[in-house]
Amino acid sequence: MLVLLPPSETKHPGGDRDPLDLAALTAPELTGVRTELVETLVKLAGDVPASRAALGVSEKQDDEIARNAALWTASTLPAIERYTGVLYDALDVRSLTRARRARADARLAVGSALFGLVAATDRIPAYRLSAGSALPGLPTLRAVWRPALSPVLAALPGLVVDLRSGSYAALAPVPGAVTVQVLSERPDGTRAVVSHFNKAHKGRLARLLATTTAEPDDVVGLRRLLRRAGLHVEHDGDTALTLVVPAV
């Protein structure tokens, strides 16, 4: 089982002294696209106003541009420790026991606008690039990534649970992947799409899937696992699941 996570715009700073090695990342066949994007970001960082426009950041976020300028030389961290925010706080891999962390490292991956696909243990620097960013001289990131990334994602073995947000899922599909929608249910039985807490629920779901000793191999087995864990999960047909949570 592989759980494919969205990235986050916020990143932990720092790391160790090992610089970025694109050829050492998962799916080295993506190295060409990764190199093009990294070099584009490094060059773009020399023009701060253009970087702000392309990346959708404000003057107060110029440190994000400085991070991009240093992509080739900056310190790196395992990807699963680099990303921060609500989902990753709920996932909280740093609190896992050694055995659970080993399972999480083997089962978690991140869909990235800069790297395409990174495993939990792939070492990456802090950077700023979102799926909706428009880089000068390049087509949309979807057009850049889809030809190279689609066959990589299509070849992923076993059950894939795709928790990516819409903009990242649009970069390239994972055929046959299980998707999860989170709905909140009010006392009167009416439901609504969870917005603010969606990432927290998906983070807790990812933690469960990353650390369980079970190995579901299809959507039915996954639904059974989640229900045994006390979650209200509905199978909507095909490979779509709905996680129903109480309204708050």
Helix percent reads: 25-40%
Detail the poorly predicted runs: none
Strand content: 15-25%
Rg for CA atoms: 18 Å
Please work out how many helical segments DSSP would assign.
10
Oligomer: single chain
The tally of beta strands, per DSSP, is 10
- H-E string: EHHHEHHHEEEHEHEEHHEE
- The global form is globular
Number of domains: 1
- Main sheet record: 8 strands, mixed
Pfam family, one: H2O2_YaaD
Protein name: Peroxide stress protein YaaA
Molecular structure report:
37% of the residues lie in helices and 18% in strands. The protein is of the alpha/beta class. It has one domain. The strands form 2 sheets. Strands 1, 3, 4, 6, 7, 8, 9 and 10 form an 8-stranded mixed sheet that branches. Strands 2-5 form a two-stranded antiparallel ribbon. Helix 8 links the parallel strand 6 and strand 7. The radius of gyration is 18 Å and the shape is globular. It starts with a strand and ends with a strand. Pfam families: H2O2_YaaD.
List the helices and strands and how they pair.
Elements: E1 2-5, H1 31-44, H2 48-55, H3 62-69, E2 77-78, H4 79-82, H5 86-91, H6 98-107, E3 108-112, E4 116-119, E5 123-124, H7 141-154, E6 160-162, H8 166-169, E7 178-185, E8 191-193, H9 198-211, H10 219-228, E9 232-237, E10 240-246
Helix pairs in contact: 6-9
Pfam family, one: H2O2_YaaD
Organism: Blastococcus aurantiacus
InterPro entries: YaaA
